[in-house]
Amino acid sequence: MELRPGFRPHHRLTHVVFDWDGTLSLIRAGWGEVMLAQWLALIPRLPGESAEQIRHLAHDDIWRLNGKPSIHQAAQLAERIQERGGQPLTAVEYENDYQRRLAEVVGARLAAVRSGTAASDAWLVSGARRAIDSLAAGGLRLHVVSGTQRRFVVEEAEALGVAQHFGGRIHGPTSEHDTAYSKRGVLDTIVRDFGIGGDQLLAFGDGHVEIEQTKLVGGLAVAVATDESEFHSGRIDAPKRDRLMGVGADICIPDFRELDALLPVLFP
Fold first, then answer.
1. In this predicted structure, what is the pLDDT of residue 119?
2. Phi first, then psi: what are they for 70, rounded to 5°?
3. What is the mean pLDDT of residues 1-18?
4. Above 90 in pLDDT, residue 32?
């Protein structure tokens, strides 16, 4: 656990916001590689450009937009193809293609959980179930704020046995074409509808959007820099850590397994 220099706890925390993919759930782990493979197959290479250079460009674009609905990445892909002299399809068509590719991976994992051939905890970030249980038992109101379509998050949360702690407070885009949805919009709605101050919000996330926006509304932000290359390794993903601390995260953890050490820091 890493604390930002000068860290100070917030003493009025009442609501907890979790990102979903990579923060609580590993069901969609590897989505970035699925998207990267799509981009590398479609982006025209410029004269003299190496495979490594185009891979670096695509990787940066994808992760810069992480946390937003993936239609934004699909639009960026279309722009890259056009600026390189290609004839792009629409962002919606690229989004549909990406979702089809990802659905093959996700579907197999959910089927294994539902059939009992895979334990649900194998697809939760280490310690996530206990963290959810503990925070809910402590009287905090829990929310999921995801860039993944809401219907998918609800389905996955139910399969993994954690949906009951969030009630109707699972938020995400309503469809693959929903460009109006934003995590900041959800945070503003929580503050308004529950009549709370921004300093009453605690957020956990592995994307810079939820970390950055939580800090902008005055909340406390915990970066969950999960290692998605080796599930449950307990290691911090260094590039994730750098991105999340770079946008103001107050604390950085690799997962929730050291909950007994984390809770006294959050709730002294």
1. 95
2. -70, -10
3. 96
4. no
Quick one: tokens of 94? 């690229």
Residue ranges, CATH 3.40.50.1000, the chain: 2-27+120-266
Q: What residues have CB less than 8 Å from 214, skipping those under 6 apart?
A: 17, 187, 201, 203, 205, 220, 221
pTM for the whole structure:
0.85
pLDDT at 151 over 80: yes
Fold classified for 2-27+120-266 = Rossmann fold (3.40.50)
* Structure-token match 């891979």, residue found: 55
Which pair of tokens denotes residue 65?
């937009």
Q: Which is nearest to 67 in space by CA: 21, 27, 128, 35? A: 21
Amino acid (one-letter) located at 180 = A
Q: What is the pLDDT of residues 228-245, one digit of tens each?
A: 878 899 999 998 999 999
Q: What CA–CA distances, in Å, run from 219 to 51, 103, 211, 262?
A: 41, 34, 9, 17
